[in-house]
Design a protein that fits this description.
141 residues, alpha+beta, 46% helix, 4 helices
């Protein structure tokens, strides 16, 4: 028997397919940003820019390649991200000419559609993470 988490992951995956189709119908091109996030990446994102700077200073002599990778990380987030449970995705939208769209519109159009797919569907535009789409799990969105 499938666990509740696995059922939520199936729902999420099926919903993402529908969201991508909807974006195409609206005339947008989409690239996939982060979906799965390792626990290590979530930790790096959670410590923020100043924390990453301090970490780089601690390890740069012994581990220069790792330090450079950490220094280049611009991610923000939480330790217990829904990306770690495979319940979130970040999308990048482009217009027909290939211009990356970073303003809230047209993400708001996708947010409305996403939220119509079910009561646990959350759109990041509602909480300051515009390209984020997720299925709520254990109170996290």
């Amino acid at each position: 028997m499938a666990s509740e988490l696995l059922k939520a992951q199936w729902l999420f995956s099926e919903s993402v397919a529908r969201l991508l189709d909807h974006a195409g119908l609206l005339g947008y091109k989409v690239t996939l940003g982060e979906t799965y996030r390792s626990n290590e990446q979530a930790e790096l994102n959670a410590i923020g820019a100043s924390g990453r700077e301090a970490l780089v200073k601690l390890i740069e002599k012994a581990f220069p390649l790792l330090a450079a990778k950490i220094a280049d990380n611009r991610g923000n987030g939480i330790r217990n991200s829904l990306h770690c449970q495979r319940l979130a995705i970040d999308l990048q939208l482009f217009d027909a000419e290939g211009r990356w769209l970073t303003e809230d519109y047209p993400y708001s159009l996708l947010a409305d559609f996403w939220e119509s797919l079910g009561p646990t569907h959350r759109a990041g535009i509602r909480f300051g993470d515009t390209p984020h789409f997720s299925v709520e799990w254990e109170g996290r969105k």
